[in-house]
């Protein structure tokens, strides 16, 4: 081990116990991994406590600049700032790594239901972290930062989710529930409308014909099965995306992006885009 004057310690052994949290792809709710400088930047901006920061050799100064900009008081910074060559990082994570840095940090606490905004994206039993991450990224891009997740959906703090969202998931408020249909009914009782995405053959009306209410939950369903029948029954809007003849479905992350883009375009005021 070599100690640098800037506080970065060199890692030369891929089996070094200090970098054990970064091995493989799967993160857990007890410790979350951010892959890449854009995601690490979001972690720094969030103020969440970091456990370990691991930089690709030669990128330390870039990260020190971001730390100084986003955490000028040094609050929540890790005791360990490590650096390693790209080859070691690639061996560590199991794929060719070129994103510059990784961070291990404590995930944020869940938000209570009352903290969610007027526009909410709900996730019904989504299984693939890449899809959840892409939807979270699109949601933030189109002004929605409140999320409702059933426990059957992959955790928003799963490593694949954070990587696919480029860390933007950390900008959102997340409420997780062990009974999504019941929580959706509770939101409806509080004045929210519920919209679900469905194939055209299911009797849904075209997206372009929909008038969006101010308080809305958009629910996206499982990659193979779609939104559950119980949630469909509770929905105020059943929407489909008009497509060319012979095509009646899209990947859920793509469909979610189209719906969110249309929702953003039709939002009456910036204040409702939360």
Set out the fold topology.
Elements: E1 2-3, E2 9-10, E3 32-35, H1 37-46, E4 50-56, H2 60-70, E5 80-84, H3 86-93, E6 101-105, E7 119-124, H4 129-141, E8 146-150, H5 159-164, E9 173-177, H6 180-189, E10 193-197, E11 205-206, E12 216-221, H7 229-234, E13 237-240, H8 252-266
Parallel strand pairs: 2-5, 4-5, 7-8, 7-12, 8-9, 10-12, 10-13, 11-13
Antiparallel strand pairs: 1-2, 3-6, 4-6
Helix pairs in contact: 1-2, 4-8
Overall description:
The chain is of the alpha/beta class and 274 residues long. It has 2 domains: 104 residues, 2-Layer Sandwich (60s Ribosomal Protein L30, Chain: A), CATH 3.30.1330.30; 160 residues, Alpha/beta knot. The protein contains 8 helices and 13 strands. The chain is elongated and about 60 Å long.
Structural class: alpha/beta
CATH class of the largest domain: Alpha Beta
Query: Regions with pLDDT < 50 over 5+ consecutive residues?
Result: none
Shape category: elongated
Q: What's the total number of strands?
A: 13
- Compute the separation of the termini in Å: 47 Å
Q: Report the C-alpha radius of gyration, rounded.
A: 21 Å
What percentage of amino acids are in beta strands?
A: 15-25%
Main sheet characteristics: 7 strands, parallel
What is the domain total for the residues? Answer: 2
Please give the count of helices: 8
State the helicity in percent bands.
Answer: 25-40%
H/E series: EEEHEHEHEEHEHEHEEEHEH
Biggest β-sheet: strands ordered side by side in the sheet: 9-8-7-12-10-13-11
CATH superfamily of the largest domain: SPOUT methyltransferase, trefoil knot domain
- CATH fold title of the largest domain: Alpha/beta knot
State the CATH architecture of the largest domain.
3-Layer(aba) Sandwich
Mean pLDDT over all positions: 89
């Amino acid at each position: 081990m070599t100690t640098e004057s800037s506080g970065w310690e060199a890692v030369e052994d891929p089996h070094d116990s200090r970098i054990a949290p970064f091995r493989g792809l799967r993160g857990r709710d007890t410790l979350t991994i951010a892959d890449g400088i854009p995601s690490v930047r979001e972690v720094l901006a969030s103020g969440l406590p970091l456990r370990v920061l691991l930089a690709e050799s030669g990128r330390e100064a870039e990260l020190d600049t971001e730390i100084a900009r986003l955490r000028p008081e040094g609050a929540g910074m890790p005791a360990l700032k490590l650096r390693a060559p790209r080859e070691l990082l690639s061996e560590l994570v199991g794929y060719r790594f070129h994103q510059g840095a990784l961070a291990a940090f404590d995930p944020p606490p869940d938000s209570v239901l009352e903290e969610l905004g007027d526009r909410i994206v709900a996730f019904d039993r989504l299984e693939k972290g890449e899809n959840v991450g892409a939807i979270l990224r699109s949601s933030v891009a189109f002004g929605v930062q409140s999320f409702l997740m059933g426990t059957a959906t992959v955790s928003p703090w799963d490593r694949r989710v954070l990587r696919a969202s480029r860390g933007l998931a950390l900008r959102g408020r997340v409420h997780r529930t062990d009974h999504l249909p019941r929580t959706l009914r509770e939101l409806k009782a509080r004045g929210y409308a519920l919209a679900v995405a469905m194939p055209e053959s299911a009797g849904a009306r075209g997206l372009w014909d929909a008038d969006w209410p101010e308080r809305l939950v958009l629910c996206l369903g499982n990659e193979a099965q779609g939104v559950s029948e119980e949630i469909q029954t509770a929905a105020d809007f059943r929407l489909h995306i008009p497509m060319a003849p012979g095509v009646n479905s899209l990947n859920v992350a793509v469909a979610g992006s189209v719906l969110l883009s249309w929702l953003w375009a039709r939002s009456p005021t910036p204040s409702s885009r939360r």
